[in-house]
UniProtKB/TrEMBL annotation, chain B:
Name of the protein this chain belongs to: Iron ABC transporter permease
Entry annotated with the keyword Protein biosynthesis: no
Transmembrane segments annotated in the record for this chain: 71-88, 100-121, 127-146, 158-179, 199-225, 246-273, 285-306, 318-337
Keywords: Cell membrane, Membrane, Transmembrane, Transmembrane helix, Transport
Membrane topology type: Multi-pass membrane protein
Compartment list: Cell membrane
InterPro entries, sorted: ABC_BtuC-like, ABC_transptr_permease_BtuC
Gene Ontology terms, MF aspect: transmembrane transporter activity
Protein's GO biological process: siderophore-iron import into cell
Length: 342, 342
């Protein structure tokens, strides 16, 4: 179990790291590689998610970024020279609608980065989220190819922390883009922020109207059920902050604290009124499929009642995308019965 | 002849010994149904067993739909692995022979990978059949390669062919998995042997093969005794060596193939238990086979029960428990027990 689980979750996590949607970036990619000309001369510095201050004599212009982080930067008009993704850039949620011409694709699978190609790009900055639980940047976590890790030797690595809030994450990439010379006051960006604020307001309202509603973020698998630990899932912490009662599991896996692992015998340990189902594997038929496959999945009353909604797990990076996802959750909260799990 | 007196005396004790093992197996099976990662009171377990129909409570579902099939599968798979190991060790006269070095695990894995990548098949229930076919195909291949040449499938050629086929198939699997992370995720179900997440459909799917194979295996005692004397001696005694060997391999293919397909590669049982049986019974395969058949499921179920109660509410796979406990146990047997020659 131990041997593969981190890889699984890491894979899954990084597949969705790439969260920034096309809605946030449409129209801004025309800035192309204009970042170079717009960049201030330097010296440049940025405080990494790990707390370390990364400095350079000149403001970086040749950036290699992980998929979602690249999309976040592109939404501010910073075009990277190279991208490494965790799946095909044609299907990656963040990248599929972006114009990637002129950007070198350095990897389309989790844990695999073509470092030789990356070196040929002569990067002066690498951008990947900082994962506090693993103390590593995206693409450099435990379990990736040893060869891929050499990416970190090409240039300084910075990233915003997957910390306590998606709002901090979005703000962090805005700051990073700003430090790299981007103008962050375009009308689209302002509109997305506004949309986000409105989404938060209606979300809070809906949650307040269902005061008894409890939710749990879950991910079923062939041999056990995983219950997410909000402490390491910034969007779940945001939901809690906005009044949603997201269940904190009692005993997260000490080696990989993103989850508490429940054997299928214990699938009913928590009885939420609404299940936030891991969005990375969620399909409309998922709930019924697991009910058929696992005799105890429907012993979770919310699952039996079909009170299941996709949870944007570990991938949100921008206000725009968060707003879209929040609206879906608000609808689910409004439709939920706060007495199912009691 | 004193040695035949010895054997007779031994046999008179071995019969009742088998009865004791039978009782022990029943006890362990009882433990396996009553203990687990979920604590269910004994009366409730008994009530569920008495009704033989789930009354809708999770405790009865866990007992009847999770633990009973798991236990039955554990008994059949354990017995199959032990007997397959004993036969392989006898036929190849190789004390280290087990299903793993005859290419069975690698054959199963390569077929599952093929199913996922080429045929686009998904779902544990379907993989069982591919794994089964792969295990049998690998074993047939090993036997065919070893049979080349005038002297037929000699023990040394079988061992070498097994190692070669295993290495060849493993490299194919690795090659594909390296370039396709999704396949890796699907294959994980087989990486560590486990009894978790296998329910009635898996049990009823493989049970007929296992039961038929187990019954057939008991007829090989005399033939294996002959082979143990060496090929020439066996021929001198009127044995059809080639035919015996082919038939024995057929039975092993069915037993180990079905077991591996159902539960993934489970280590140590097939390797170590036959040695324990030989230690108890002496060199007579007419006893070694039934002893292996009863000892193996006892070991497997005990390890599984242990794995289910040590990390509640999580579970450890039986493969992990066996690996951790099996290695020192084997060292102990080698060091302190006088192992009988194969």
């Amino acid at each position: 179990m131990r041997a593969w689980r981190p890889a699984l979750v890491l894979t899954a996590l990084s597949v969705v790291l790439a969260g920034c949607g096309s809605a946030d970036t449409s129209g801004t990619t025309t800035a192309a590689s204009g970042a170079a000309s717009a960049a201030p001369a330097g010296p440049w510095s940025f405080t990494d998610g790990s707390g370390k201050v990364v400095k350079a004599d000149k403001t970086p212009t040749r950036i290699i970024a992980h998929a979602g982080e690249a999309a976040a930067l592109m939404s501010f008009g910073i075009k990277p020279v190279g991208i490494y993704a965790d799946e095909s850039v044609k299907t990656d949620a963040n990248l599929k609608d972006l114009d990637l011409t002129g950007i070198e694709i350095l990897g389309q699978e989790w844990g695999k980065i073509d470092v030789e190609k990356a070196a040929a790009l002569r990067p002066d900055l690498i951008v990947g989220d900082w994962w506090p639980a693993e103390k590593a940047h995206s693409g450099l976590e435990e379990g990736v190819d040893e060869k891929s890790k050499k990416l970190a030797e090409l240039a300084p690595v910075v990233g915003v922390s997957q910390g306590k809030s998606i709002v901090d994450l979005a703000k962090g990439y805005e700051d990073l883009a700003k430090s790299l010379g981007a103008a962050v006051d375009s009308p689209e960006i302002a509109a997305n922020k506004k949309r986000f604020e409105a989404a938060v307001a209606t979300f809070k309202e809906a949650v307040a109207a269902k005061s008894g509603l409890t939710v749990a973020a879950m991910s079923p698998a062939d041999d056990k059920v995983y219950v997410a630990n909000p402490e390491y899932a910034p969007e779940l912490l945001d939901f809690q902050r906005w009044g949603m009662k997201v269940i904190n599991p009692d005993t997260p896996d000490p080696g990989f604290p993103y989850w508490e692992n429940l054997s299928w015998e214990n699938a009913d340990k928590y009885q939420p009124d609404l299940i936030l189902f891991d969005g990375r594997s969620f399909k409309p038929t998922s709930n019924a499929d697991w009910g058929k496959k696992q005799p105890t999945w429907f012993k979770i009353k919310a699952a039996k009642a079909g009170a299941v909604v996709s949870w944007p797990a570990y991938w949100l990076h921008t206000y725009g995308h968060f707003a879209t996802e929040l609206d879906k959750l608000t609808a689910a909260v409004k439709a939920a019965d706060p007495n199912i799990g009691d | 002849m004193s040695s035949s007196n010895n054997l007779a005396r031994r046999a008179s004790a071995l019969g009742p010994g088998l009865a004791v093992l039978c009782v022990l197996l029943a006890l362990v099976a009882f433990l396996s149904v009553t203990l687990g990662s979920r604590s269910i009171g004994l009366p409730e377990v008994l009530r569920a067993l008495g009704n033989l129909d789930t009354d809708g409570s999770i405790n009865s579902t866990v007992t009847l739909e999770l633990r009973v099939p798991r236990t039955l599968l554990g008994i059949l798979v354990g017995a199959a692995l032990g007997v397959a190991g004993a036969i392989l060790q006898g036929v190849t006269r190789n004390p280290l022979a087990d299903a793993g070095i005859m290419g069975i695990n690698s054959g199963a894995a390569v077929f599952v990978v093929f199913a996922v990548t080429v045929l686009g098949v998904r779902g544990a229930g379907v993989y069982v059949w591919f794994a089964f076919a792969g295990a049998i195909a690998a074993l047939v291949l090993v036997y065919a390669i070893a049979s080349l040449g005038r002297e037929g499938a000699t023990p040394i050629k079988l061992a070498l062919a097994g190692v070669a086929v295993t290495a060849g198939l493993a490299s194919v699997t690795t090659g594909i998995v390296m370039t396709n992370v999704e396949t890796l995720n699907e294959l994980r179900f087989w990486q560590v042997g486990s009894l978790a997440g296998r329910y009635a459909p898996v049990l009823t799917g493989v049970a007929p093969f296992l039961i038929v194979g187990l019954i057939a295996s008991l007829g090989f005692g005399r033939a294996l005794n002959g082979l143990a004397l060496g090929e020439d001696m066996a021929r001198g005694l009127g044995q059809q060596v080639t035919r015996t060997r082919a038939a024995a391999f057929g039975v092993v293919a069915v037993l180990a193939g079905a077991a591996t397909a159902a539960c993934g590669p489970i280590v140590f049982v097939g390797l170590v238990v036959p040695h324990v049986a030989r230690f108890i019974c002496g060199p007579d395969y007419r006893w070694i086979l039934p002893y292996s058949m009863f000892l193996s499921p006892i070991v497997l179920l005990l390890a599984d029960v242990l794995g289910r109660v040590v990390v509640v509410p999580d579970e450890l796979q039986v493969g992990v428990v066996l690996g951790v406990l099996g290695a020192p146990a084997f060292v102990g047997i080698v060091r302190y027990g006088r192992l009988s020659e194969v």
